[in-house]
Amino acid sequence: MVYRSLIIPLICAAGFIPIAAETPDFALLLDDFRGTEPAAGLEWQGFTDRVMGGRSDMSVGVIRGDDESYLRMSGRVSLENNGGFIQVRLKLADRPKVFDASGYSGVRLTVRGSGGDGFYLFARTRQTRFPWKYYSASFPVGNQWRTVDLPWSAFQPGNYGSMGEFRPDLLLSIAVTAAFREFSPELEVREIGLY
To answer: Taking a C-beta distance cutoff of 8 angstroms, is the pair 182, 78 a contact?
Structure first.
């Protein structure tokens, strides 16, 4: 098994690479971590609540093996100093551009991990003007790989005020996130895309 360390922020691609081909599981595959760049999107970025003074820590990298490749995020989520998250985000567009995902039903990801609840997919749109604004949908993890579908209707505004209804036609990024409670999460993502 080969381990490729990713430096935070994770820079994986310089430009947007749209993929139109159908796959058995995804209408649009965003990444399966087999290549050196995302299948679609601008770049992966990893960061924690330390960007706003928090105390959480994170380790992130891509694990490559003979049979599979996946993104691994682990660390310690701390609520100290108004903190409470670690995340790895895939940028899909740079403002003022947006990624129009309205032709899809939602996000599909294949995940496994430990740490109980506290795992979310965050989405940012043109409506989330400030860094602390986001929409989120929770998802379950267990120690076996499972595929999770998160329909657009599952995404709700975060804790920092109303931004209106979630609009997939104004998408900027999605992020796998561990948040909102003190714990030591481990999360692995084998595939992520739109269905």
So the answer is: yes
Residue 126, both tokens: 């043109």
Instruction: Report the distance separating Cα 12 and Cα 98, nearest Å.
Output: 19
Backbone CA torsion sign across 64, 67, 71, 72: negative
- CA atoms of 50 and 45, how far apart (whole Å): 14
User: Residue length, the chain?
Assistant: 195
Peptide bond into 185 cis (omega under 30): no
One digit per residue, pLDDT tens: the chain, 195 residues?
333 334 334 333 333 333 333 444 799 999 999 988 898 878 899 999 999 899 999 999 999 988 899 999 999 999 999 899 999 999 999 889 999 999 999 999 999 999 889 999 999 999 898 888 999 999 999 999 999 999 999 999 987 766 889 999 999 999 999 999 999 999 999 999 999
Q: How far is C-alpha 66 from the geometric centre of its chain's CA atoms?
A: 24
DSSP state of 80: G
Single pTM value for the model: 0.85
Q: Which amino acid is at 138?
A: S
